[in-house]
Amino acid sequence: MEWLAARTHDGAEPIGWGELRDFTLAGKSLPLKDRVKGIWKPAGFSAALSITTTYRPEGSERPYDDGVYDHDFLLRYKWNGTDPAEATNRALRAAMEQRVPLIWFVGVAKGLFQPHFPVYVVGEEPTAHQFLVSADAAALGGDSPFEEQLRRYADVTAKHRLFQGIFRSQVLRAYSERCAVCNLGHLPLLDAAHIIPDRDEQGIASVVNGMAMCKIHHAAFDSNLLGVRPDLVVQIRADLLHEIDGPMLRYGLQEMHGRPLMSVPRMRSLRPREDLLEKAWERFKAG
Ligand SMILES: [Zn+2]
């Protein structure tokens, strides 16, 4: 996990299957996940080491509708099949009993995974064939009402972080790591902007509610200095167009007015959803 933390900036950046396969510890090969199976227990381990959620190219459906994102504050991970005694299910149950930390790999593209660690298996729902996973070790023990509250809060923030990390990776990849407005292609200067803010009910952490934007254009978009028309043409707030100032205003904002977005996902299903764009466009006009 230390290696993974260094390699992925604490789980902020995704990592490729090749690197996970080729990982070695003390000179010995120790793949960090299986190529196919979701639950991975390396030979000689007493419990599972990692779990993987496979990448699913998304259409307009909300990601994680498969039960991962549920009404309470824990994440769900499905059994392998329906047999509780199946070997990998037993390995994951062992991780719960031994209270050992695991790595959760969430596929964000083919062969590319966003790692979340440590996570803990804190319970099981046998009738639904699934385990309960928490990103917080505190969920393992203690049952006073106070601890219960604390756990809930920790899980909400951990889950929020988790989904925002996945959102960022998916959006930046969909836009080939370029600002939709100006095409800037330097990762440290790029954000995944929400079309509808995530505090709003419609502000889903889905690639169809996102656009990759550089820091300036992201901030301009959020503060309604820059809008994106539903036909994907950039508009700059009228009063800014007549202002005279330095090169950032002139080239960075004024010259973007009336231009189509420079970077748009090739796959139609990854492009901004029209109703979300419409709503953001109304907000811009009102602003
Ligand atoms: Zn930009």
From TrEMBL:
<keyword id="KW-0540">Nuclease</keyword>
<dbReference type="Pfam" id="PF13391">
    <property type="entry name" value="HNH_2"/>
</dbReference>
<dbReference type="InterPro" id="IPR003615">
    <property type="entry name" value="HNH_nuc"/>
</dbReference>
<keyword id="KW-0378">Hydrolase</keyword>
<keyword id="KW-0255">Endonuclease</keyword>
<feature type="domain" description="HNH nuclease">
    <location>
        <begin position="179"/>
        <end position="228"/>
    </location>
</feature>
<protein>
    <submittedName>
        <fullName>HNH endonuclease</fullName>
    </submittedName>
</protein>
<dbReference type="GO" id="GO:0004519">
    <property type="term" value="F:endonuclease activity"/>
</dbReference>
